[in-house]
Write a structure and sequence with these properties.
This protein is mainly α. It has one domain. The chain contains 4 helices and no strands.
């Protein structure tokens, strides 16, 4: 489970990095941010799931060697991270909590911004 949270958080981080520039541009120009925020959340969770996909496939098939070949690096360097053999769950959990908190905070700020613009 520790590896899965780390893989998921890496996928979310990559999705966040990919989706934040359009959100930032819309925010700075005073445009509505509903679609960029939705795109950001969708991309972050989709890439998180994409990064964990080898672990899901491995669990379903029961093959412990599945996901260890070089071709599996397509899934956001899954074999490389799996070989790190990190000691605990703390890194992935902290990263996930941070990413969830940032998303929640930005959504609350966007709601506040929209209410002020409408008032």
């Amino acid at each position: 489970m520790a590896q899965s949270t780390l893989h998921f958080s890496l996928g979310m981080a990559v999705g966040t990095l990919a989706a934040l520039p359009p959100l930032w541009r819309a925010w700075r120009r005073g445009r509505p941010v509903t679609r960029p925020v939705a795109r950001w959340c969708l991309l972050a969770y989709a890439l998180g799931l994409f990064a964990v996909l080898p672990a899901i496939i491995r669990r379903l098939t029961g093959d412990p060697q599945l996901g260890s070949g070089i071709g599996w690096n397509l899934f956001l360097f899954y074999p490389l991270l799996a070989r790190l053999d990190l000691p605990g769950i703390v890194g992935g959990e902290l990263a996930l909590a941070g990413l969830f908190s940032v998303q929640y905070g930005v959504i609350l700020l966007a709601i506040r911004r929209a209410r002020r613009a409408g008032a």
